[in-house]
């Protein structure tokens, strides 16, 4: 793969438009960032679970604040790589004019990386998949293709993000968000369909999957345009776009460190426990003295969080620069954070272990995850058969609750199910709970 082809300002849906750098305020890739910031799907992330669902009065991160922080880290990772390249190659800007935009491309992709996640995070994804694997949705298996069935039984937020960004929903403008090809490619962590993904031992790029069947041709068009490397075993499977590694690293850095900070705010981890976890990541011999001069506990934790993230940014950017050749050849088969120095990697493993034991399995977290699972399952039980059948007046009334933008003249069972999933997966946690209560008769809707 070659940076000259991998970095393209061509826009999805506007491929034949001449690219003119007339906007003195923003580059093409900065325009991507702004389009995402001002969009409704991005704003809805404010009420979507990151780790701690519906936390109440205590401020912890949601999907929106997480995405903003990931974008900040991603921009730094991209900028450091460009700076290092510039130091060893003085003619860089002349030969690779878009390389200086890597920070902007990565930050835009980071903003969008969670836009396809349903309410209640991974619990919501699991509920959707389970509905078709062993719930009422199992009866539709014979009505869809094998590839479509894999989409339904392995719902993937990453694939849903690509759909949101490229699909023309009813009444919307063609081209979706009309983002640049490079930004779109940088979002797709697993460049294959569900039927070709979810396999072990076949490469990192096939660990999960990155697009639904309706977006298959769209993604392949993007991959070919950017010169992405094909998998030798399957022409419809591609190796990762190099910038995916930076987007993934930014996400890994943020959720590992920020979850620890949030756990402290909620009283799950003590300040002492947080300090024991994060001090080894600071690479600052004076950090204990600095902490001793700070009386406010939250400020002490914030300082450690900032120093830890800074260390990991430097480490991951170093790995990306050092492994550039392997990345461009499509032969780099692990994440950047898995290749940091052994000492820091051990610290990260400890954080991961503590996070699983004390954070992700905290009773309050698990209880709401289970409730969210029931909510998402309940919504599918109502909307999928109602939209597919329209057999009774009740079905018609339930189907009428689906906004017009998600309705299309679909004849196939898969197409109709996809319309329902577009609606349900777009919901915020709060809206999903409210709608579930109303249609199940748990609470009565107001007529105001």
UniProtKB/TrEMBL annotation:
Ranges for domain HD/PDEase: 59-265
Q: Name one Pfam family in it.
A: HD_assoc
**Which is an annotated GO molecular function term of this record?**
dGTPase activity
**EC numbers on record:** 3.1.5.1
Q: Which Gene3D superfamilies match?
A: eoxyguanosinetriphosphate triphosphohydrolase domain-like, Hypothetical protein af1432, putative deoxyguanosinetriphosphate triphosphohydrolase like domain
Question: Mind listing the UniProt keywords for this protein, alphabetically?
Answer: Hydrolase
Question: Its GO biological process terms?
Answer: dGTP catabolic process
UniProt-listed InterPro entries: dGTP_triP_hydro_central_sf (IPR023293), dGTP_triphosphohydrolase_C (IPR027432), dGTPase (IPR006261), dGTPase-like (IPR050135), HD/PDEase_dom (IPR003607), PHydrolase_assoc_dom (IPR026875)
Q: What class of enzyme is it?
A: hydrolase
Q: Which PANTHER family match?
A: DEOXYGUANOSINETRIPHOSPHATE TRIPHOSPHOHYDROLASE (PTHR11373:SF32), DEOXYNUCLEOSIDE TRIPHOSPHATE TRIPHOSPHOHYDROLASE (PTHR11373)
Its recorded name reads Deoxyguanosinetriphosphate triphosphohydrolase
Name the species this protein comes from. Answer: Sphingobacterium sp. (strain 21)
């Amino acid at each position: 793969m070659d940076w000259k082809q991998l970095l393209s300002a061509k826009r999805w849906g506007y491929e034949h438009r001449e690219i003119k750098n007339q906007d003195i305020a923003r580059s093409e890739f900065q325009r991507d960032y702004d389009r995402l910031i001002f969009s409704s799907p991005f704003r809805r992330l404010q009420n979507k679970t990151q780790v701690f669902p519906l936390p109440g009065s205590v401020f912890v991160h949601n999907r929106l604040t997480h995405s903003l922080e990931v974008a900040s880290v991603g921009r730094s990772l991209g900028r450091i790589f460009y700076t290092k390249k510039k130091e060893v190659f003085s003619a860089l800007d002349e030969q690779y004019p878009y390389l200086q935009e890597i920070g902007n491309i990565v930050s835009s992709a980071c903003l969008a990386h969670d836009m396809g996640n349903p309410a209640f995070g991974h619990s919501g994804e699991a509920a959707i998949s389970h509905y078709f694997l062993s719930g009422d949705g199992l009866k539709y298996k014979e009505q869809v293709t094998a590839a479509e069935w894999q989409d339904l039984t392995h719902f993937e937020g990453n694939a849903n993000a690509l759909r949101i960004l490229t699909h023309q929903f009813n009444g919307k403008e063609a081209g979706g968000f009309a983002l640049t090809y490079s930004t779109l490619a940088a979002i797709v962590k697993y460049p294959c369909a569900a039927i070709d993904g979810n396999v072990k031992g076949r490469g990192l790029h096939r660990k999960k999957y990155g697009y639904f069947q309706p977006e298959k041709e769209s993604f392949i068009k993007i991959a070919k345009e950017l010169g992405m490397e094909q998998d030798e075993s399957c022409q419809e499977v591609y190796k990762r776009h190099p910038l995916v590694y930076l987007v993934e690293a930014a996400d890994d850095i943020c959720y590992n460190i920020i979850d620890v900070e949030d756990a402290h705010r909620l009283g799950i981890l003590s300040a002492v426990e947080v300090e024991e976890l994060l001090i080894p990541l600071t690479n600052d011999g004076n950090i204990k003295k600095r902490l001793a001069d700070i009386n406010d506990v939250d400020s002490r934790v914030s300082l450690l969080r900032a120093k830890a993230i800074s260390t990991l940014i430097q480490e991951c950017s170093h790995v990306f620069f050092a492994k550039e050749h392997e990345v461009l050849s499509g032969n780099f088969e692990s994440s950047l954070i898995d290749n940091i120095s052994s000492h820091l990697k051990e610290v990260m493993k400890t954080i991961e272990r503590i996070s699983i034991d004390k954070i992700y399995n905290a009773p309050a977290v698990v209880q709401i995850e289970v409730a969210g699972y029931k909510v998402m399952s309940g919504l599918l039980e109502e909307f999928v058969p109602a939209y597919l059948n329209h057999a009774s007046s009740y079905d018609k009334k339930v189907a009428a609750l689906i906004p017009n933008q998600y309705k299309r003249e679909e004849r196939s069972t898969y197409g109709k199910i996809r319309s329902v999933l577009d609606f349900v997966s777009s919901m915020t946690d709060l809206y999903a709970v409210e709608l579930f209560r109303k249609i199940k008769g748990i609470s009565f809707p107001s007529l105001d």
